[in-house]
Amino acid sequence: MNNLIILPILIPLLTGIILIFFQKNIRIQKVISLIAALTGVVIAAIVVQTVHTSGIQTLEIGNWQPPYGIVLVADMYASLLVLATSIIGFTALLFAFYSISEDRERFYFYPGVQFLILGVSGAFFTGDLFNLFVFFEVMLMSSYMLIVLGSSKTQLRESIKYILVNVISSALFVIAVAYLYAVTGTLNMADLSVKIAEMGQSGFLTVIAILFLIIFGLKGAIFPLYFWLPGSYQAPPSVVTALFGALLTKVGVYSITRVYTLIFYHEPGFTHQILAWLAALTIIFGVIGAIAYWDIKKIIIYNIITAVGVILFGIAANTPNAVEGSVYYLVHDMIIKGALFFLVGAIITVTGTSNLRKFSGLIASKPLLGWMFFIATLSLAGIPPLSGFIGKLKIVQGGFEAGEYTIAFVVLLSSLLVLYSVMKIFINGFWGEPSNEAEFKAKSTKGLYVPIAILLALSIAYGFGIEFISPYISQAADTLLDPTIYIQAVLKE
Amino acid sequence: MKKTHVKTNDVIFQTVTKVVAFIIIIYSLHLFFSGHYTPGGGFIGGLMTASAFVLMLLAFDIKTVVNTLQVDYIKLTATGLLIAVLTGVGSFFFDVPFLTHTFDYVQLPLLGKTALATAVLFDLGVYLVVIGVTMTIIQTIGETE
C-alpha cells in the first residue's frame, strides 16, 4: 500500500479541476499551476528515488488485488519518464506565461495543460492495458483542445486531420484490446505476460502484437504512420508544439517498448525484426524531411520522427546495451526537444516568421539566443560532452552486437544529417548579414530564455553527470530486459 | 424552426413540459440511486436529468431556461469532478489505497435499514459531470449564431 505513486497523476488532476473555477482570474491560474508543477517535479523526483532505493512500487487502486483491479506500477523506466514529463510541464508553463496570448489563457489553456500532463503521467504509470487506453484518451482529448485553441484557419484544418487519425487509432486500440482479451482473458499487463508465456506466442498473438505496433505507431509517429504529424504539430503555438513533441509521441514510444518487452517478447525474430526495419525507415524519412525544409519549425518536427526511430531501434535490437541506450536517448530526447521547440518559439517571436530564408544575422541582435541554440543543436546531434551522445553510442553498440550492421550505420549517418539540418538553421539564421537588426533588437524576449536555460542546463548536466545517472538508467533497462522483475513486483508471486 | 411572422402558440407543449419535466427528473433520481443493485447509475441518471432540461429548452427559449435554473454548467462539471476525485483522496486519511470505497448498513428514520456506500459520492460526481457536459454542449451550440 503506497499512495505516493498516485500523486503525479492526482496533482495535475486536482489542479486542472481547481483552475476551471478561476477561469476569469488569469493571475491566480498562473500561480496555482506553477505551484502544482513545482510540486509535481519534487514528487516525481521522490518517486524516482524511492524506486531506486526500494524497487518497483505498485499501488492496487481501490484495494483490489491484481489481476482483478487496476494496478499502478512505477518501475524505474516509467518513473524517469514521469520525472521528465513533470520537468517539461514546468518549463512549458514558464514559457507559456510569456508567450501565450490572453484570449487563449482565458479559455482554459492552463487546465488543458494540466489534463495533458495527467494523461501522460497516467499512461506511464498504469499497469493495465485498458487503463492505458483511458489515459491515452485523457491525453488526446486535452491535446485536441490545445491544438485547436485559438481557432486560426490552419489550426482548424490541422485539428480535423489530427482528431480523425487519432479517433481511428483509438478505435483500433479498442479492437486490439478486445482480441487480446478474447485470447487471454485478462488485461493486466503482468498477468498478460504470464498467460502468454504459458500458452506460447501463437500466430494469432503475433498478429495482435503487430496490431499494437500499428496503433502505438500511429500515436508515436513511426514510418509509414507519421503522415499526420508534420502538419498537425506545425499549427499550434510553439509552447503547445513543445509539449506535444516532447511528450505525446514519447507515450507511443513508451507503449511500444512496454508491450514489446513485457508482453510480446517470445517471437523476436518476427516482431522485433519488423520493428527494427520500421525504425530504420522512420529514421531515414525523418532526416529526409529535416534536411528538405526551410521552415525552422518543420525541421525540428521532422527531427522528432528521426528520434522516435532511433529509440525504437534500440528496443528492437534487444541487447542490454541497446535497451539501456534507448532509455538514455528517450529521456535526453524529451528534454532536448522541449528546449528546441522553445528556442524555435523564441526565434519566431523575434523574427515574426519561421521561414529560414526571410532572416539572417540574428546573432548580432540576440547573441544569447544564438549560443543557446548552438548548444542545443550539438546536444541533439550527440556531440560527446552533451546529453545525446551516450544514448546513441549505446544504441549503435547494441545494434552491432545484435548483428544489425545496416541499421546501426543508418543511425550513425542520421546523426550527421540531423546535425546538418539544425546547423542549417544556425548558419543561415544566426550568421550572415544582419537583416532588420534594429527591429529584432527591439523585440522583447522577456522570460522566454528562462525555461530554455533550465532545459539546456539539464541537458548539459545529463551529459556530464552520466556516472551519477547510470545506476538509474541501468535499473530501468534491467526491468525492460527481464520481464520477471516486473511480474513479480505486480503479482507478488 | 422556420421563422414566420405569425406567432406560434405552444401552450399545450409548454404545459405538458411543466408536468413531464418533473417526472423525468424524479425518474432520473430513481435511476441514480438504484445503480448499486439494479441497472442505472450516475451516467444514465445524469443523461436523464439533462434530457429533462433539454425538454425545457425545446419548450421555452434559452433565456427563460437559463434564468430559471441559474446554473453555470462548466462550474457544475468541475464540481462533479472535484467530488469524484475527493472521494478518492479521502483514502489518504484512512491509510488505504487510492479510491478504496467502503459501505455500511445504517438505520435511517424513514427508510429503515439502508446501505450507505461511499461509491454513491463518486457516482454523484459522475452525475454532475454528465449533466454539466451535456448541457454545456447543447447550450453552447444553441447560443452560437
UniProtKB/TrEMBL annotation, chain A:
GO cellular component, one term: plasma membrane
Primary localization: membrane
Keyword list, A-Z: Antiport, Cell membrane, Membrane, Transmembrane, Transmembrane helix, Transport
A Pfam family assignment: Proton_antipo_M
NADH:quinone oxidoreductase/Mrp antiporter transmembrane domain span: 127-416
Topology within the bilayer: Multi-pass membrane protein
GO biological process: ATP synthesis coupled electron transport
InterPro entries: CPA3_Na-H_Antiporter_D (IPR050586), NADH_UbQ_OxRdtase (IPR003918), ND/Mrp_TM (IPR001750)
Domain of life where this protein originates: Bacteria
Assigned protein family: Belongs to the CPA3 antiporters (TC 2.A.63) subunit D family.
Record's protein name: Na+/H+ antiporter subunit D
Organism: Bacillus weihaiensis
Origin organism lineage: Bacteria, Bacillati, Bacillota, Bacilli, Bacillales
From TrEMBL, chain B:
Pfam families in the cross-refs: MnhB (PF04039)
Membrane disposition: Multi-pass membrane protein
Main location: membrane
Keyword hit for Cell membrane: yes
GO cellular component, one term: plasma membrane
Membrane-spanning segments: 12-33, 39-61, 73-94, 114-138
Locations listed in the record: Cell membrane
Boundaries of every Na+/H+ antiporter MnhB subunit-related protein domain copy: 12-136
Keywords recorded for this protein, A-Z: Cell membrane, Membrane, Transmembrane, Transmembrane helix
Xref: NCBIfam families: PRK12573.1
Record family assignment: Belongs to the CPA3 antiporters (TC 2.A.63) subunit B family.
PANTHER family linked to this entry: NA(+)/H(+) ANTIPORTER SUBUNIT B, NA(+)_H(+) ANTIPORTER SUBUNIT B
Protein name (record): Cation:proton antiporter
